[in-house]
Amino acid sequence: MSEEPALIWERPEPPSRPTPSPLSREAIVRAAIGLADADGLVAVSLRKVGAVLDAGPMRLYGYLSTKEELLDLMVDEVYGEIPLPGPDAGDWRAKLADISVRTRAVARRHEWFTELLSGRPQLGPNALAHLEAGLAAFEGVPGFANIDRALRAYGTVRGYVIGSISAELAERRAERASGLDEQQWQARSTPYLLRMLETGRYPNLYRVVAEAEHPDGATGFLAGLNYVLDGIAANIPG
Fold first, then answer.
1. 116-136: pLDDT as tens digits
2. CA atoms in the 13 A half-sphere facing the CB of 89
3. Cα–Cα distance, 154 to 147 (Å, whole number)
4. Are 221 and 168 in contact (CB under 8 A)?
5. What single-letter DSSP state applies at residue 165?
6. Contacts of 226 (CB under 8 A, 6+ apart)
7. Is the CB of residue 227 less than 8 Å from the CB of residue 133?
8. pLDDT > 70 in the chain, percent
């Protein structure tokens, strides 16, 4: 029985060869990220990456086997852009808030990033370092000696971060697709919304329009994150 091929993280690159257009996994990944940043994941294919690098797609198969492996490499490269808190970065709340805010900042630069975080676990070295830092935030915290409790708590924070960023970026993409900025969209939709609210069928939505503060994205993100962290803190065993 032949051995299963090693995961991309442990598979060595082919030996470098003098060619008019030298290749490396790093160059392939950076080219793919450039395509995704410009036009989304739909723009990423081995053929298009090869065109950017002036190399046929068959040459790329020496460095990776499938498009899925390329996506894994892209995600891990972006994880590597997220600075992680050191051991003296404050208490568990401060560390998780720092990771979350920095993750949001990177995801806003690479809008496709969050689309790839909800599938199978990411096993690249940068993704593993990110998970390790999240779990390490609970080291020595009373009530979190059980690793399952730390894993559930970190998973809750991660779920909020991915969901919040995904919603924010989906709104941004919808705005671009419509050709209307936020003020233009509000001007178009407000008359209809006011007519619906005046029916009296939506009293709580009326309060949202009349009373809510409607903070900017960063402020709203932090407010929601604090709700999540408060919930975790309230459930720490005494």
1. 987 778 999 999 999 999 999
2. 19
3. 10
4. yes
5. H
6. none
7. no
8. 95
pLDDT at 2 over 70: no
**What residues contact residue 41 under an 8 Å CB cut-off, 6+ apart?**
71, 112, 115, 116
Does residue 212 register a pLDDT over 60?
A: yes
Is residue 109 scored above 70 in pLDDT?
yes
* Residue listed under structure tokens 């559930």: 152
Say whether 171 sits in a helix, a strand or coil. Answer: helix
Percent of the chain with pLDDT over 90: 55
Question: What does the DSSP assignment read for 108-133?
Answer: HHSTTGGGGSSSSPP-SHHHHHHHHH
Q: How far apart are CA 95 and CA 153, in angstroms?
A: 13
Reported pTM: 0.87
CA-to-CA distance for 212 and 19, rounded, in angstroms? 61
Segments of the chain assigned E as strands: none
Q: What angle do CA 114, 119, 122 make, to 5 degrees?
A: 80
